[in-house]
Amino acid sequence: MPFPKQIKKTLPLVPKKELSARREQLLEYINKDGTYLPKSVLHADLDRGMLDFVKTSLEVTTAGNIVPMLDIIITTQNWSQYLETWKFVDLDYNPAPPFMTVVRSPDVKYGTNPALQYTIPNRKQFYYASVPTWDGNVQGMDIYTIPQPVPVDITYSVKIICNRMRELNQLNKIVMQTFSSRQAYTFIKGQYVPIILNNVSDESQMAMDSRRYYVQSYEFTMLGYLIDEEEFEVKPAIVRAAQVFEIDVSTLKKRKKQDSLVQGEFDFNFLFIEGNDILSDVIDFTADMKFVKSNNVSSYDVYINNNYYGSDVNVVQITTNDVLRIQVTKEDNTKESNILFENTLI
Amino acid sequence: MENLVPITRLGKFFGGEDYALDTGMGQEWLEGDMNFTVILYRIDRYKTKTDDVYGEVLEDGVQFLAPVELKGLVQVMAPTNKFLGNSKVEQQEPGNMKFSLYQKQLDDLGVEIFMGDYLGYYETEDRVRYYSVNDDGYVRSDNKHTYGGYKPFYRTVVATYVSENEFRGL
Predict the structure, then answer these.
(1) What is residue A336's predicted lDDT score, i.e. its pLDDT?
(2) Among residues A190, A215, A263, B110, which one has the fewest Cβ atoms lying within 10 Å of its Cβ?
């Protein structure tokens, strides 16, 4: 009975995440080292993902040596091929078997991934995340929206070129084990992208008059999708503005007269108590006195420096050191009365 | 005792002595004057380690008989640019080598060339290219390989370039 080679001597102490926690973990992978938005996944990223998948998941080891792999997609530029193969070339600088290579069909077709096919028309934007913002004064939220990813099918052929059947067997075993459930996944920028095994074909060179070698081709289809960050939208949402009022709680002092004079206008109230109907005062400013209102006054006469100025006048022009005298006729002599002037300094 | 039947065709104007003279002179010119040397690596088919299913040699498991120097006419075909299968990996595939030699030389040395044996040919002082025999030329009954239809006297071996992964000398 063969002894199992994979002996696990320790048990994992940290259980694997499941359900909601696993979904959050996947979201962290997508957002890792970046913004709140997923990173673009375009053709080059999918190609890189396929190369990484072949390099890690389909690695072939024969006679203790890893079968090298061209870590690029062969393009029209020949120099790039040499750049990748110089480590395992022969005297003629030809890549020496065994080695593996990945050939991509240049045509990328609309995807057949059922989760993404023709479900949302017109590149409609969908809510992806609400991101808090703070610019020092205004706190708010930005709404991030992205359109539905575009499904694409990319066909790759993984080829092994070798001289020995056992190298073919080794790769075949690994491919069959990896794709025993029809599909496997590669990990591209935090996202799992499925790969399906389509076909296995043989392109071996067995002519009598030329070099013989095995070429076996495994055709895979990557059910990928394109995410273009150029299509993402960020819109402002709710904004909260903080307004601060400062109030002086100290006791208010009585306004000084001089302060009023400085401002240029102030009121002058003449109060005539019961039994008094004449008021006289020396004026220490020059101003125009405008009648504002009166109370319990039938009429009034104005004298300046004992000279009659007028009766019921609306404006009285006075100068500094004038002696102003106002004599009123009350409507009711048993009550006090008053006259209010507004002075405008000249 | 082996039965020998004398060859009497062309007997009125050509015979065994003429044949021996002409082929001897040709051999002297080819092996003496031209002096193209190829090393024959004969695989020891009994000692070489192979797997039981495919008969493929294990890593560094090829065993050889003693290498033999052979003189002959070497023709190396032009290389061709081609893809390795449909891999789009382009390479310049070296051309085959045609190696023509006198059968008498092999008979004198007591060696035989078989399919799969390796030939080494020094292109420069420090660079040797190895070929695998894919046509050992054992059948030499055609007119081309006979001396005017009298008797076969040389054979042509066709060998294909092999990468170092398959064979890299002793």
Answers:
(1) 86
(2) B110
- Chain B hits for A217, CB-CB cut-off 8 Å, are 85-86
How far from B143 is each of A108, A283, B75, B96, B136, CA to CA, in Å?
58, 155, 20, 23, 17
What 8-state DSSP symbol labels residue A86? G
- Give the A window 284-313 contacts with B, CB below 8 Å: none
Q: What is the DSSP letter of B105?
A: H
Residue A261 clears pLDDT 70, i.e. is over it: no
Domains and CATH numbers, chain B: 35-161 (2.40.10)
Report domain A258-345's class: mainly beta
Question: If you average pLDDT over residues A61-70, what whole number do you get?
Answer: 87
- Of 2.60.200, 3.30.2000, 2.60.40, 3.30.70, the CATH number of A19-239 is 3.30.2000
Give the H/E segment covering residue A344.
strand A337-345
Name residues whose C-beta falls within 8 Å of residue B139's C-beta, 6 or more positions apart in sequence.
none
Q: What is the DSSP letter of A251?
A: P
CA–CA dist A108, A73 (Å, integer) = 14
pTM: 0.67
What is the domain partition of chain A in residue ranges? 19-239, 258-345
Hey, is the C-beta of A202 within 8 angstroms of any chain B C-beta? no
Least Cα distance to A279 among A323, A247, A229 occurs for A323
- Tokens for A91? 């005297």
